[in-house]
Amino acid sequence: MKLKTKSWTLIILLSMVFSLVVSGTLSAIGIKADTTDPTYEKIEKSGVLTVGTSPDYAPYEFQTTENGKSVDVGMDINIAKKIAADMHVKLKIKNMDFDSLLVALQTGKVDMVLAGMNPSPARKKSVDFSNVYYTGGQSILVNTKDAGIYKDKNSFEHKKVAAQTGSLQYNLAKNQIKDSSVTGIEKGTDLILALQTNKVDGVVMETPTAEAFASNNKGIKVIKGGFDLSSADSSTAVALPQNSPMLKKHVNTTLATIKKEKLIPVYLKEAGSHLKSNTANTSMLHYWKFFAMGVGYTVFISIIAVFLGSILGTLLALMRLSANKLSNLVATAYIEFVRGTPLMVQLMFVYFGLGLFVNLPALTAGIIAVALNSAAYVAEVIRGGINSIDKGQTEASQSLGLSKSDQMRFVILPQALKNIWPALGNEFISLIKESSIVSIIGVTDLIYQLKIVQADTYRGVAPILVAMILYFILTFSLSKLLKFYEGKFNHA
After folding, report:
1. Which NCBIfam families match (predicted)?
2. Which domains are assigned to the chain?
3. 217-241 per-position pLDDT tens digit
4. In 3-state terms, the chain is what percent helix, strand and coil (to 5)?
5. Stated pTM of the model
C-alpha cells in the first residue's frame, strides 16, 4: 500500500516537473527587454537565416517540383530570399504545420515566420511583427454546383463552414456567420478536400489563396465573403521574436525596398506560373519519388524507434519487477506518465521544450519521442510475459545454481518472448502507423509527403489512397514476417 501511494506521489511530482519545465519554456520564450538582439547576433554568427513556413497556402507559400525535387516557392518565399540576401546570409526554410510555427519561433527553432500570417492582437502578446507587406481580401470557396445557392457570408446561416485553425478567417467565420458550425482544419489542402467531399458547405480563405485553388480546380468557385473587416486586420506581416530590434529593422528595410520597387506583383506572377506547372501533370506516378522518400523515412524512424524502444522497454520491465523499491517506483511512474499523455504532446515537448536546452533536429526529436513512447508499452508487454512464466521454472533454475541474471537471460526471457511475441508484434505494427505524427514538426515521412503531393497537385483523395496502400504494404509485410518467426518459436 505504501509503494502504491509513493508511486502516485512520484507521478504527481513528475507531472509538476513537466508543468514547470513547460512554464519555464514559456518564460524563456519572452527574452527580457534588452538593448541586445540575441536572434540577430545568432544569425550573424552562423551566417544562416532560418525561416519557418507552412507550404500549403498558395500563392504565399507552397511547393513545386524542380529536377525531381520538391522546393518551396511563393510570394513569402521570395520575400524570405530577399531578406536573407540583404542581410548577406544563407536562407534555410523549415516546414511544419501552421499551428506549430509560433511555438517554433518562441523556442528558437526558427528566426522568423513567413506564412501569410496576420498580426492579430492575440499573437502580438507572444511575438513581434514587422511592418505589413500585403493586404488581401477575404473570400469563401464553394463547390461549383452550389455557386447559385451562396452569395456571401449571410448565405451560410445554419450551414457548415471551415477555415484554417488559428487563422483570422476562422475568427471571422466564428464571429460573423450567424448560427453556423465552424470547423478548424490545419492544412489548406485538407480544407479543399473537406469541401469537395461535402463535409462542409464553404471554406473561408484569403482571396489570393482562394483564387489560386479555384483556378486549378474546376470543381470549386470563389464568392465574395462580405465580411466586416473594420475591426479585423486582414494584413500580412513577418512574425519575429520579441525584443529583436536589429532583426526587425533589417526586415522592415527590406520590406520597404520591396514596396518601393513594386516587387509584390512580380512575386505573385511568379507564383502563378508555378501553380500552372504543378497542375500540368498530376498523376500519382509522376510523384512516385515523393512517396518513395516518405516510405524510406517512415521505415527508418520505425526501425530505430523499435530498436531503442525495445531496449528501454526491457529495462523498464525489469526495473518494475525488481525488489528494489526505487527502481520499481521510477519505472512505474515513467510507464504511467507516458501512457497517460498523448504522443503528439510528447513529440512537441521533446522538439520544442527540450529544444530550449538542446537544439534537436526534427528527425532526431521524432525518433526519440516515438521510441520513448513505445518503450512504455513494450515494458508492460514484457512484464506480462515474464509474469506468465510458471514459478517452477525459476525454482528449477535456482536449483541448478544459476544466478538471478542468468535465470532471467537463459530461462525466463526466452520463454516469455515466445508468449509475448504476438503482442509485441502488434506494438511494432502500431508504431509504424503512429510514427506519422512526426510530420507535424516537418519530418518528411509518408504523411508529410502525402500533404506535399496534395498541395502540388490540388488532388485530395488520390494521394490519400496511395498512402493507405503503402501503409498497408508495410504493415502486412511486417505482419507476415512476425508470423513466420512466431511459427519458428512454436516449433522450437
Report:
1. HEQRo_perm_3TM
2. 33-133+236-280 (3.40.190.10), 137-233 (3.40.190.10), 286-490 (1.10.3720.10)
3. 788 999 999 998 876 667 899 999 9
4. 65, 10, 25
5. 0.75
